[in-house]
């Protein structure tokens, strides 16, 4: 059997979405599309569909640590992607896991609300993510409603939220599309004062799993060695294409098409 160079490994610490639109399935598909190998460790189980989340259960921390340690002992982890954590205890669990991965890029997708609006964690989880987890992360990728929760600014603009959050993290990508703007403006802020705005055309409809797709694609690009601003731009372009080609398999939101139709042909 002919062997080829190994694909970069990305450890995903996320929840499971049985609809397949978001969560670990989104992570896996998006990372495959970047040419990476996804190593998924389940943090939570959810009851949800493409309409909204009904309930969730956070896994026992020992199970999550055991999953992550099995991956770390066996595979060369090049990046870590965080999704739904759901509890303060799981925030602390991630920090413990990251002690075994010094210098490895950590992409924090602060999943606090489902696309349909349902809660995926109590408000104090957002506080713990800001105070404890963001300082250990390379970049966080909140949408504007999540950034407002993290910054405790219910009506804050992206600039106002970034000013409040940058003391906690070196890089912050606040994604747009949640207001009345004609085009979507995604803003990358860095603690050194640099700022990049990436603009794309607004697409009709709403989408289930777009944030998971973006954060996973970004983790994959960093695992491949791409510099951060370039990785952000590549991940945003990829995510926009998955939304452009999205499908509606259920009664609710569109699901991004993260892999081409002929992927398995």
The main β sheet shows up as: 9 strands, mixed
- By DSSP (H or I, 4+ residues per run), the number of helices equals 8
- Helix/strand-derived category reads alpha/beta
Segments where pLDDT lies below 50 for 5+ residues? 115-121
Count of strand segments: 9
* Rg, alpha carbons: 17 Å
- Chain-averaged pLDDT: 92
Helix and strand sequence: EHEEHEHEHEHHEEEHH
Widest sheet: strand order? 3-2-1-4-5-6-7-8-9
Helix percent band = 25-40%
User: Between the first and last Cα atoms, what is the distance in angstroms?
Assistant: 21 Å
Shape: globular
Residue fraction in strands: 15-25%
Quick description:
With 265 residues, this protein is α/β, with parallel strands linked by helices. It has helices at residues 23-34, 61-74, 88-98, 123-133, 144-151, 158-165, 210-223, 228-244, and strands spanning 9-16, 37-48, 53-58, 77-82, 106-108, 139-140, 171-174, 183-190, 195-201. The model is unreliable at 115-121 (pLDDT under 50).
């Amino acid at each position: 059997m002919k062997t080829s160079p190994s694909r970069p490994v990305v450890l995903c610490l996320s929840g499971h979405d049985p609809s397949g639109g978001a969560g670990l399935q989104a992570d896996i598909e998006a990372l495959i599309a970047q040419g990476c190998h996804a190593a998924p460790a389940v943090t939570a189980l959810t009851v949800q569909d493409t309409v909204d989340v009904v309930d969730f259960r956070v896994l026992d921390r020992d199970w999550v640590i055991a999953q992550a340690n099995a991956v770390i002992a066996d595979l060369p982890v090049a990046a870590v992607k965080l999704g739904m954590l759901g509890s303060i205890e799981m925030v602390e669990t991630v920090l413990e896991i990251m002690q075994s991965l010094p210098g490895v890029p950590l992409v924090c997708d602060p999943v606090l609300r489902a696309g349909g609006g349902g809660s995926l964690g109590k408000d104090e989880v957002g506080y713990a993510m800001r105070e404890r987890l963001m300082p250990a992360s390379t970049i966080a990728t909140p949408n504007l409603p999540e950034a407002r929760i993290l910054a405790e600014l219910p009506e804050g603009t992206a600039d106002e939220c970034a000013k409040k959050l940058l003391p906690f993290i070196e890089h912050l990508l606040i994604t747009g599309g949640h207001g009345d703007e004609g085009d979507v403006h995604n803003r990358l802020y860095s603690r050194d004062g640099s700022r990049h705005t990436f603009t794309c055309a607004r697409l009709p409809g709403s989408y289930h799993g777009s944030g998971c797709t973006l954060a996973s694609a970004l983790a994959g690009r960093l695992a491949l060695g791409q510099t951060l601003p370039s990785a952000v731009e590549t991940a945003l372009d990829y995510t926009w294409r998955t939304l452009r080609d999205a499908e509606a398999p259920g009664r609710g939101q569109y699901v991004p098409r993260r892999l081409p139709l002929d992927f398995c042909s």
